Amino acid sequence: MRTSRPARVGQYTALLAYLVFLVFPFLWLVSTALKPPRELGSLHPTWIPNDPTLANFRQAFDEQPLLHAALNSLLAALAAAVIAVLIATPMAYVVARRRTRLAKAVTGWVVVSQAFPFVLLIIPLFLVLKNLRLINSVPGLVLVYVVWALPFALWMLAGYVRAVPPELEEAAAVDGAGRVRTLVSVTVPLLAPGIVATGLFAFITAWNEFFFALVLLKTPEKQTLPVVLTHFIGAEGVADLGPLAAAASLATLPSLVVFALIQRRITGGMLTGAVKS
User: Fold this and answer.
1) DSSP 8-state code for residue 175
2) Which DSSP letter does residue 185 get?
3) What distances in angstroms separate CA 50 from CA 27, 209, 248, one per listed residue?
4) Greatest CA separation found in the chain?
5) pLDDT by residue (tens digit) across 254-271?
6) Sign of the CA dihedral with 54 first, then 55, 57, and 62 last
């Protein structure tokens, strides 16, 4: 169907407005990070700094251990994403291929669990980690991130598995391949776009997570980047706006870079998961 010219203009206008809505916060954050103190306190803020400076970035690195906190966040996010995908892939295969009441119950529980608030989970998770002696440790935080990301990863990957034609697995079974061999050699290669998309979402969720890290990590050298960013806010709630904007703009870069590098695989994974045989 061909759309009329006014309809196309309306579509492009709506798309442009949505892009501006998404990009504006980041651009304003970078603009704030490049402004000197006198411009930050101005009653008439400007979009482009009149006298751009990198002093806020230098001050941010001098005041807080941003690189060490970023390393903690990177290790926790990568480990959580990899472990969640490794666990969710065979689980998603079983849930998608076994059309039993148990599989349906698991799928329903996964959907319901996404509605649980963080506050409801933090107390039992804290007690479990305390018994395991993993409080105030990055491995303990990774375990929490895996538990939190696993239902979503399972739900996403199950959709991708359903899009894989069962006939391919039946052909592998005829050739003598077992369930594990079929999953590793036939299904997983076809799930590569979906696995990448799921892992990226798990990584971004863990990278940006704040509440669990704030509660579970007490030692400064073990804190993640989102927690360290709060140190730019004083005891009276007054933020050191320039260094805070500089640190926050740097904290968004890893997610943007990773997304830009593998956006094609993400798009392919989403389309694959949306199609069912």
Assistant:
1) T
2) I
3) 15, 34, 21
4) 75
5) 877 777 766 665 555 444
6) positive
